[in-house]
Amino acid sequence: MEHLKRSPTEESASPPEAGSAPHPEEGAEGLACALDVLELELQRAHAVLRQGVDEPTHVVGAPPPLPSPPEESLPLPQGTAVGRYIVRERLGAGGMGEVYAAFDPHLNRRVALKLLLPGGADRNQARLRLMREAQSMARLSHPHVLPVFDIGEHGDQVFIALELVEGRTLRQWLKEEPRPWREVVQVLTRAGQGLAAAHAAGLVHRDFKPDNVLVGHDGRVLVYDFGLACEQGTGSPGAPVPVDLSVLLSAQPPAPDADAFADLHTREPRETPVTRAGLIMGTPGYMAPEQYRHEPLTGQADQFSFCATLHYALYGEHAFEGHGAGALARATLAGRLRPPPRDSDVPEWVRRVVRRGLSLSPSERHASMEALLEALQDEPGARLPRKVLMAVAAAFLAAVVAGAASQWSQRQGLCHHLGTSLDGVWDAPRQDAVRQAFLATGQPYAAAAWAGVKSALDGYASAWVDRQRHACEATFLTGQASEERFTARTACLERRRSEFKALTALLAVADASEVEHAVEAVRGLSELEPCDEAATITERVPPPREPAAAARVEALYTELARARALRISGQYVAGLAAAIPVATEARAGTYAPLKAEALLELGQQQRGFGDPTAEHTLLEAAWTADEVGLDEVRAEALVALTQFIAYDSARVADGHDWFHQARALLVRTRRQGRLSAQLESAHGLLYSAQGDPIAAEASQRNALAEWDKAALAESPERASLLRHLGLTLSAQGRHEEALAEYQRAHAAYVRTLGAGHPRVGSALVNLGGSLSVLGRPEALPTLREGVAIVERTLPPRHPFRAVALDALGSALTRVGQREEAKRVLLRAVVAAEGSRGPQHPDVAPACDSLGRVLLELEHPAEALAHFTRAMTLRERMMGGKHPELASSLTGQGEALRRLGRSHEALVPLERALTLRETHAVPPEDLADTRFALARALMDSRRDMRHARALAEQAVQGFQGPGHQAALARIQSWLGARHSRE
């Protein structure tokens, strides 16, 4: 990273000042004095810094006595851990900071670490500047702004992690060889687009110059070092406001439009002045006049700096006369521009554009950065003269009169017949074939599934045509986009069309299992929005130019679309078989975007089978996507990783890590909607797996909020979010609230999938479970209906069969139908073993339920065996502190007590009580454990007073509806104990 090895400006901080520069209102004499201070301060900085560049960023005040030069810091040894990063080598060092190449083992990528050196009189100011730089750059997501990944602390040092880009500064790039003026304008235009993005985000860079533009060896142009950035309309220095870094680092990263530090009772770091009042921030020669005058700054100040940089790049000298900071400042404030060199070949029209951007008054400059960049592209020689346009118009009118305007209308009509591109994809014959295939299955939900599929595919087809037409018109009618951009967008949309075609071809011959997944398959089609940014990816990583190689890449994309269509339609085996060869060939190739997408699809296919290699495949997809800036692919890979281990209580820590990485990327790219909702829901499942239903509830509510914020249509996905929310409420004993969410989910499933769909069956099972706990008479009919749908529509080894049977058996136990409950729960155990294997912890719930009904049937020895098995299965996978263990432990204790082994019962019951008292569990579960321990204590003649207290506490836990029998049993027991005493 050449620019970091040789340019320490971003690490340098200004020395402490003894006073402040006079305010402009003090008159010309005060301003002249301030300009002299500039000169002295710059000389002092050159003496202090061992390394430097031609024009360091400057924060100017009255100079104190010259300090002794700082001692050269020793570089961090290779292998040092800085946060989660591993240091590889030092790239450069400046007066206040160092830059290292490092490795991120979590994402398997190289990064650049910028560290603030310890010590120094201006350390706190430098810390604030580094934090402000990270916050400002992380707020931006643009191809021409250097990405920031992270901010943290290493001992007493602050660091930020940035993308490691091999390249050099614009100044170094200009020195390498003579650059034609068109090439210079092209490079600076890209940097200007990064500035425009900052302005759109409400930021002013405030220090744009040749040293803060990176020209990568891969052709990328990136703006960086936002250490002096401020909000638009601010920038006038004031008294600094301290920020507690530890509080900052512990705060959750905000959404881009949120007030990031509203809860810290201070101003955001990018608004916090790095120095005391009266200082001038920026670099002489590039600073706008209003920066010298301490006026509020807008994007016009950056426009001035941009034009000063462009002048330097075009002519090899400063735009303003004079040498040294003071002289440059005087010339800037007086507007004394240098005349162009006599031997320059830069056209006069370019010079006019630059001069306007260098106007003293912001109001006389270009209206915006976008207007300036547009003016730089508006080369007079490339436009048709007005007379020619008039002649063309006259010729066109004559052609119309003569009836010979067909060639003119052909170009205009080019964009109005794109609907025919979907012939054979979603035309009338294909729609009829899909409808007949659905109805031929005879499934009760087939008609509703067809209606949902047709509605969704009609919308997708319409959106596809609209996007293709817009791209066409922007290029061939309005001229707003280049043909290169049109080509890139069309290629992306063509890949979406291939996927669309592959899916409808599969649906046209669908069987019952494919109809079951059809609505979700349509919702799973690749989104169209990323095609709008396809040109950026193509610009960064051009596709193969050689015709045979280019054709092969497109053929692989077509195969990839087919693999995805197979997966989302439920044909998992065929989908995996199609994905493997594409991923294998893409891995061996050199076109990284194809490799990233192929690995993502392969990882998704492997995830569907529970294949543990899915994790590494998805990680590789994320790394590859990150290398080429495919944010969409990387985000999907990270979300898939979170989902992959969401149910695995042994991998909760890893799941949280993937969640935070994915969330940070979605926030930076301002991504909302389906993907964000899926991520939040997966995070909720992680919390459920670790036994934290309160946090799980918050995540599921966040998921629903993300879905609704994006105004997405009602779908089975939203219904699933409602189900997940209901599960978290049930786990807290809030059964009335859970029932309401289950009812909403059930209604949404029926509307979108039809009454006989297996998802409807699963919702009925959840509904019936809550009704049973609440003691409602409609619980059993609801559960029986749900189980019937599940058994009729799901394959024999599907995991939810065991869940449904467990719910029905538990409800039968509650109403005293014990023999039927036993038969149903034996089937539940067998179903769980068949779906997951006999050693899987998912077998434990059915074992516990079977143990409870065996206790009711007075078979405590058999019950103890089932409770012990459940305990063993859970503890091996979940560890010894998971709250789900309490169910098995309570059953063990009760079985031992009924076997006359009350002394032995105390150990598991006390352990169960500790788990349930330290976690959020339903109050009836806690009451159950307390009453079981009370009876064991009483039977073993241990601490009678404590036994009574536990029983009285248990009474409070059974106060809700549905627990009348349990409450009567405890009260009877307490009454008997009282009469004996």
TrEMBL record:
<feature type="domain" description="Protein kinase">
    <location>
        <begin position="85"/>
        <end position="377"/>
    </location>
</feature>
<feature type="region of interest" description="Disordered">
    <location>
        <begin position="55"/>
        <end position="77"/>
    </location>
</feature>
<keyword id="KW-0067">ATP-binding</keyword>
<dbReference type="InterPro" id="IPR019734">
    <property type="entry name" value="TPR_rpt"/>
</dbReference>
<dbReference type="InterPro" id="IPR000719">
    <property type="entry name" value="Prot_kinase_dom"/>
</dbReference>
<protein>
    <recommendedName>
        <fullName>Protein kinase domain-containing protein</fullName>
    </recommendedName>
</protein>
<dbReference type="GO" id="GO:0004674">
    <property type="term" value="F:protein serine/threonine kinase activity"/>
</dbReference>
<feature type="region of interest" description="Disordered">
    <location>
        <begin position="1"/>
        <end position="32"/>
    </location>
</feature>
<dbReference type="Pfam" id="PF13424">
    <property type="entry name" value="TPR_12"/>
</dbReference>
<dbReference type="GO" id="GO:0005524">
    <property type="term" value="F:ATP binding"/>
</dbReference>
<keyword id="KW-0547">Nucleotide-binding</keyword>
<feature type="binding site">
    <location>
        <position position="114"/>
    </location>
    <ligand>
        <name>ATP</name>
    </ligand>
</feature>
<keyword id="KW-0808">Transferase</keyword>
<dbReference type="InterPro" id="IPR008271">
    <property type="entry name" value="Ser/Thr_kinase_AS"/>
</dbReference>
<feature type="compositionally biased region" description="Pro residues">
    <location>
        <begin position="62"/>
        <end position="72"/>
    </location>
</feature>
<keyword id="KW-0418">Kinase</keyword>
<dbReference type="InterPro" id="IPR017441">
    <property type="entry name" value="Protein_kinase_ATP_BS"/>
</dbReference>
<dbReference type="Pfam" id="PF13374">
    <property type="entry name" value="TPR_10"/>
</dbReference>
<dbReference type="InterPro" id="IPR011990">
    <property type="entry name" value="TPR-like_helical_dom_sf"/>
</dbReference>
<dbReference type="InterPro" id="IPR011009">
    <property type="entry name" value="Kinase-like_dom_sf"/>
</dbReference>
<dbReference type="Pfam" id="PF00069">
    <property type="entry name" value="Pkinase"/>
</dbReference>
